[in-house]
Amino acid sequence: MWRVSLVIVFGAFVSMLDTSLVNVGLDSIRNALGATLDAVQWVASAYLIALAVSLPLCGWLGRKVGVGRLWLAAFGAFTVASGLCALAGDIGWLVVLRVLQGISAGLLVPAGQTILGQAVGPKRLGRVMSILGIAVSSGPAIGPAIGGLLLHSLSWHWLFLINLPVGVIGIALGLRYVPRGDRGAVSRLDWTGLVLVSAGLPLFVYGVTMIGEKVTLASVSVLMPLLAGLAGLLAFGFRAWRRAGPLVNLRLFQDRVYAAGSVATLFTGAAMFGAMLLFPLYFQLLRGADVITTGLSLFSLGIGTTLVMPISGWLTDRYGGGIVSLWGNGFTVLTTVPFAFLGADTAAVTLQILLFLRGIALALSAVPAGTAAYAAVRREDLPDATTTVNILQRVGGAVGGALVAVILAQALPEDAEHAFRTTFWWLTGASVVAVGSATWLWLAQRAARADRPIATVVPVAK
């Protein structure tokens, strides 16, 4: 079990690391390839949009070919695409190859979660998911530091070449240890549903992301994709609820624990990814740190998460994801409020202590909610469950990032210190909403346990 878990971590870590690693090198790529600023931004945007496109297909493919085979194929495609990205001679080819890289990366995390869930069962799910959670949460956090160190002495090509040895090792171990999974009977692919969600999800994520850049809903470039994406998602949801053999089984939401865990993941994701955007800007814009210093300053956050994540998994298995997520989100609120009072001259030691404590809070809030949702469904429903929860986390992350970007951009021209204080108050509010969703999950789990029939022992007559 632990061998499989550690192998799956390879895929999760490298796919999440790439979301922030390449962003550091956009300016170097622009200069090397002679591209415009607008064009080079698509190197990052195309990857994120492609991540969203591939998610809805993960559950169907996992049932069709076996989730282990899907994971291996996705990891192989990601590794090959990484090598091809390093060979790209112009910006157009690089963007196209980043799409391929993003599509394969989008399959790695939900496929890995399904493999682990089917391998260990609900009673030990928290412990193994916590190992995967270390990779998912620490990858974006340390990406800027690794990218900055690479660019300090090497060319931009190494932002992609770094994935090759990790990919080769991960695939080799996966061929040996990862179970291939069962090929199940699946209905015909719902092409209409696939088109609706594959267009609706990236359009919605793109529209929400553009809100953070344009700082207005009135812009056509924001409003049109946002409305089109929302319409596509609503149409997909209506079709999937009514259709037999849908692309993604949304009837799982009839289970109150699964529904509460999924919603808690949505709001926790918004608070978590909003903070991931805000903290690097805090060090760069307010404290004047460079990219490498910023990345190193955030290491204490990752250390706190890494140390406590296994404990979080054990607590989830022992007491339930609801109560752990509730305490974790409550602790997140307490570790966010101090930043609303701190200025640019705050001592570095104080900041590191707060970031370490926030890393602990992140470990207690991020994974337990999703784990509770997975534990509430049957083994054969895990491919659909992991797909849906990851989609909700992606949407929540886009909304949280856009919220932070809009609030900060509106207040930044007046006074940087005031702007960050205001934004941290908004981030605190988002964490309070996450506390509310975690409370719902805790109550749903309590009610589910109360509804279980109590086994009685009937004496046998001698």
Automatic annotation (TrEMBL):
Transmembrane spans: 39-58, 70-89, 95-116, 128-150, 156-179, 191-211, 217-236, 257-279, 291-311, 323-341, 353-377, 389-412, 424-443
Pfam families referenced in this protein's UniProt entry, alphabetically: MFS_1 (PF07690)
Subcellular location: Cell membrane
Domain of life: Bacteria
Domain Major facilitator superfamily (MFS) profile: 4-448
Main location, first listed in the record: membrane
Keywords: Cell membrane, Membrane, Transmembrane, Transmembrane helix, Transport
Membrane topology: Multi-pass membrane protein
Family matches, as PANTHER family: BLR6921 PROTEIN, MAJOR FACILITATOR SUPERFAMILY MULTIDRUG TRANSPORTER MFSC
Protein name: Multidrug efflux MFS transporter
Annotated source species: Amycolatopsis acididurans
